[in-house]
Write a structure and sequence with these properties.
Two copies of one chain form a homodimer.
Chain A lengths: L1 E18 L8 H15 L4 E6 L10 H7 L4 E4 L10 H4 L9 H9 L3 H9 L4 E8 L6 E3 L13 E3 L4 H7 L3 E3 L3 H10 L4 E2 L4 H7 L7 E4 L8 E7 H5 L3 H35 L3 E4 L2 H21 L1 H21 L2 H10 L4
Parallel strand pairs in A: 1-2, 1-3, 6-7, 6-8, 9-11
Antiparallel strand pairs in A: 3-10, 4-10, 5-8, 5-9
Helix pairs in contact in A: 1-10, 5-12, 6-11, 8-10, 11-12
Chain lengths: 342, 342
Amino acid sequence: GAAPAIVQAQAQVRWRLASSFPKSLDTIFGAADVFAKKVSEMTGGKFQVSVHAGGEIVPALQVVDAVQAGTVEIAHTAPYYFFGKDETFALGCAIPFGLNSRQMTAWMVEGNGLKLMRDFYRNYNIISFPGGNTGAQMGGWYRKEIKSIADMKGLKIRIGGFAGRVVERLGAVPQQIAGGEIYSALEKGTIDAAEWVGPYDDQKLGFNKVAPNYYYPGWWEGGPQLDFFINTKAYDSLSAEYKAVVEAASALAHVEMQARYDAKNPAALKQLVGSGTKLFKFPKDVMEAAFKESMAIYAELSAKNPNWKKVYEDYANFRRDQNLWFRFAEAGFDDFMQNQKL
Amino acid sequence: GAAPAIVQAQAQVRWRLASSFPKSLDTIFGAADVFAKKVSEMTGGKFQVSVHAGGEIVPALQVVDAVQAGTVEIAHTAPYYFFGKDETFALGCAIPFGLNSRQMTAWMVEGNGLKLMRDFYRNYNIISFPGGNTGAQMGGWYRKEIKSIADMKGLKIRIGGFAGRVVERLGAVPQQIAGGEIYSALEKGTIDAAEWVGPYDDQKLGFNKVAPNYYYPGWWEGGPQLDFFINTKAYDSLSAEYKAVVEAASALAHVEMQARYDAKNPAALKQLVGSGTKLFKFPKDVMEAAFKESMAIYAELSAKNPNWKKVYEDYANFRRDQNLWFRFAEAGFDDFMQNQKL
């Protein structure tokens, strides 16, 4: 039951959150809104986080610098955007042939993931909280069919960051193109292919109209995690209560974002297929060559980047064990269900 | 930055939580501890939830009655335990050939699941919050191998609640036996088989020593969700802040429990296999017969239980769409990874 009210003091806090995403991506961008709303609700409006889309305060891909410098207190981003600073950032988000969504969360929350990544992020005055996952992404839109590894030769493909290093070794030519310009490049044939996220987000950008072949799986993003990056000084200045509020609001946003993608992707996929999109699985030799090159890159990185080596060793062990286990109960169940008439 | 402290009043609240689980199940029982700890942290100790194991205040399987009557403010349980009151309870947890863990969360959080189940639970003075998932469970321990549907005939199997109705139609004889007594029944041969949860929990009970054949998948529990059941009057008496605190703490416990199972199952499975456990996939004809009987039962229930019909219709549509989508990016990625040497 409720005892009489007591008097208590709790500070007013105002934070600015810089997102790396545009408002149009209601799934990814939305996680920051969910976080801010819940923090406010839990504190009776005393702890306010204003959410700003990419470019509003700082450019989308400079949010790490902004948090590091304390220009903003918090960012919501995909850590792998910053692999140019240090490849280790990618391990906190997604690497080709990495962990899937559930495995990533398990590594973070119950494995050593969060601890190891926080040790690393501390170099950037950052403390991180998992803040969403897209689930396994699609492998993108191709003007022509990819029938074997030979078709990757010279293929100009718009592809996110780290994965570019792998497709390069397969003979493709990775392109960095901002979201808003992909459609026109693909339409004109300046590029041959483009990957974005999955059915729900991809449909909005209309890629199906100019490149009908939709490939899966997005082997470079099996379960990319988004993070809330908080300036350590801003975080340390919070009360113990507010620290717990930040943690729980992040967890709620984490659950919500994956749920939103899972709930929204099926209808988008149906509409895409209904309007002529052709679904293809990547040829086995493409997958195998990409896997081999990825593992070679990871070994090279381990030899030259001690930050990477420390985290990747733990990540790789966890990935091995997870796949050993998931193949039985999880895959056995899913595989059967996916083959039933429901 | 932090503005000067202001004075604010927030009530002292003391709740008792009745868990349906013993303390020894640190994964499931642990979710209630995680919830209580986080609620306390977020409120500076003003909102306290004391956590009681099954049987401590009320018997493990009577927690719904206790919350309904207001004997306790909150319970942590697996809703399908209460399918005897109304089969609809099972839809809030797991039914044979139902949703997997991620799909269940998506249905709850972004689909109509939480809304529909709350409409139903209101009849019991309950408001629910998702509070964990075990992931796909294993299919249990068998003294003899199951080579085809014929081997199910007369099989005495300890199996949880609702699934008993299905195996009965396959000719097996379901047994209700409490956790602590399963081992001895299996050892003596009073029963031929027993299912519990998965490697991590099963290993503690030592079933591998008396029944070496370990089957997968647990088709009756593809992603059972645990819930926090809160007495509506107790919930309504909370401030808006505390209501949000309850919601966010549940989300955090929800993430944590699935992560804990995922992180702990692989090592347990390796140890079990290392000590002689033999892993088998259920024969195809067993799976197919069980699927067919399950669908028949659901159709029968829809004809006679309007509560079931209303919720199941939405659940089944969601399940169909989820499996349509998951077979591409998710399964394509997982299947490849599970077949690599990692």
